[in-house]
Amino acid sequence: MNMADSSSPRSPIRAGDVEGLGRVYSETGIPILSSGETLLGRREACDLAAYGSWRIIFPKRLFHPLSGKPSGTMYVTTERLIFLREIDIWKEVKSLLTPLGLPAAAEKESKLKALRAAGARQFCEIFRHRLRVVQTRRKLWGLLHLRLLTVDGAKYEVFVYTDRNDSNFFDLVEGTFRGNS
User: In 3-state terms, what secondary structure has residue 95?
Assistant: First the structure.
């Protein structure tokens, strides 16, 4: 995952993989909470997409979802939303498996195997106190769409996907942001 531009310490949404080990999540895949931070909820079978703009065409992608059944876990805390998922090499590489893409697929597969061997996971953390909700939309089949703003007017868009409609979980996620408005 090439998400170096979203890993700034001041960014309200940070994403990556191995750099979160020991800082965002432990070797066992459990989020590391700061002092005073409390876990409010957890939901398995999720996926997440995060963008650094509201544009429909060519938005700045901070974190991308994977095709197929959602396989990550979302943790809702008093300070952050933390999304963690195992690195799925097949899902990451299969779109590159074309005659012209084989060298790139082989290189990416090699890098991902090394990350998995080091205990890395893909993560996205959203610091909810740095953002406020402008618009939310839900789809019955398990999608929550959030448009968010920072104090200085920067726009972010987040999509939370679940394996089924989960109103209670979506209420929890929305509620954590609504407290900032």
Answer: helix
- The whole-angstrom distance between residue 90's C-alpha and the CA centroid of its chain comes to 19
Cβ-contact 11, 24 below 8 angstroms? no
- The long-range contacts involving 168-172, CB below 8 angstroms and separated by at least 24 positions, are 169/41, 169/43, 169/74, 170/138, 170/144, 172/40, 172/41, 172/76
For the cut 60, the answer to whether the pLDDT of residue 2 exceeds it is: no
Cα–Cα dist 166/147, whole Å: 19
Both tokens assigned to 148: 């968010």
DSSP type of residue 24: T
The two structure tokens encoding residue 123: 């993560």
The per-residue pLDDT for range 15-56, each reduced to its tens digit, is 999 899 999 999 999 999 999 999 999 999 999 999 999 988
Residue 4 zone, left/alpha/beta (φ > 0; ψ -120 to 50; rest): alpha
Model confidence over 112-170: pLDDT tens digits?
A: 888 888 888 999 999 999 999 999 999 878 999 999 999 899 999 999 999 998 999 99
Q: How far apart are CA 11 and CA 122, in angstroms?
A: 17
Half-sphere exposure of 55 (CA within 13 A, CB side): 8
**Dihedral over Cα of 180, 75, 148, 46: its sign:** negative
